Amino acid sequence: MELSYWEKKSFIGVPDLAVIGSGIVGLNAAITFKNANPSAHVVVLERSWLPLGASTKNAGFACFGSPTELLSDFESMPSKNVLDTVRMRLTGLSKLRKRLGDETIGYIPCGGYEVFDTTTSFDACADKLSWLNKQLKEITASKETFITAHHIPKKMSMKGFSSCIASPLEGQIDTGKMMHSLLKFAQSLGVVVLNCSMVSAIEQLSSKVLIELDNKVSFKCANLILATNGFARKLFPDLPVSPARSQVLITSPVEQLKLNGVFHYEEGYFYFRNVGNRVLLGGGRHLDFEKEATDEFGITQKIQRKLDRLLRTKILPGKKYTIEHRWSGIMGLGKEKKPIIKKLSKNVVAAVRMGGMGVAIGTLVGELAVKELTAN
């Protein structure tokens, strides 16, 4: 496809920065670069008509990791990496709230909870809770980041959950409002966002980067940030990040809903929350790791049946509701949960592998990507 003179000049040109991916990371990277360089020409390329991946498809958890998830991380990762990642998540949340404002993103400090349905699983976590709190004290500025709260399941009319651990530091956001506000903010600074622009190839030239789109359009840019998370290996196969699908559903309004907060279950592989007087439930990829390690969107009967049963028997027992929406999102995971923020060449930086915590960590990762790009 041939571009007109006006299209080349006004929309593309030779950007000072091109960002691939218009999700949380990509938009924050564009905003950070534009704030530091007000006259710069910044273009964000998005493969779909909406930010495709996880940024508009997530559950809206403003969280930093459940107790069992963090304890598991300490067993499989160096302690410094775990603590650094938690610090990044909390810093990222703070930056997101400061950049857009709590009302704008629908932030509610409702608290977070991890629920247990066996005494064995709870006791294994509770025995290490004091130790975990000590590890996190310097980061969270709280002596009790996590506390036992056995009354919560009964108070919120759940059934089958015998124990609970609470985190007053967690909350929820409105994912749609957050992304709409982030996009609007970026565009208000003069950032150009081009939707339906699928990048098919990237080539490092002597001083510029050549970008080719699947519609045969190509152009050069001075700098490039890759912010496609779970899709990153389509362009850079050697990056240690893999796609992971997460399936989600949301109910119709539920009368006299007592559920309030964000909830983790089975090391965070299941997660649920209220969205007003609806219930959102997602997860279950651990039921079929192999099939869910994909960048293809879709839902499966195996996981959806489990979500339906969990909702019916434990979360909303005896309540009347219907399932109004089912969808999936694509995360970027790896053996390490710490994000990848690194130069791939002298003027190309990757900012990927959010580890399922893009809401929390994405704003900071976008900023750090720009810092990495401009570092000598």
Explain this structure.
The strands form four sheets. This protein has an eight-stranded mixed beta sheet with strand order 5-6-4-14-15-16-13-17. Strands 8-2-1-12-19-18 form a six-stranded mixed beta sheet, covered by helices on one side. Strands 9-10-11 form a three-stranded antiparallel beta sheet, with no helix packed on it. It is globular, with a radius of gyration of 21 Å. The protein starts with a helix and ends with a helix. By secondary structure, the chain is α/β, with parallel strands linked by helices. Helix 2 crosses helix 12 and helix 4 (79-100) crosses helix 7 (129-140). It contains twelve helices and 19 strands.
Task: Sum this structure up briefly.
The protein is α/β, with parallel strands linked by helices.
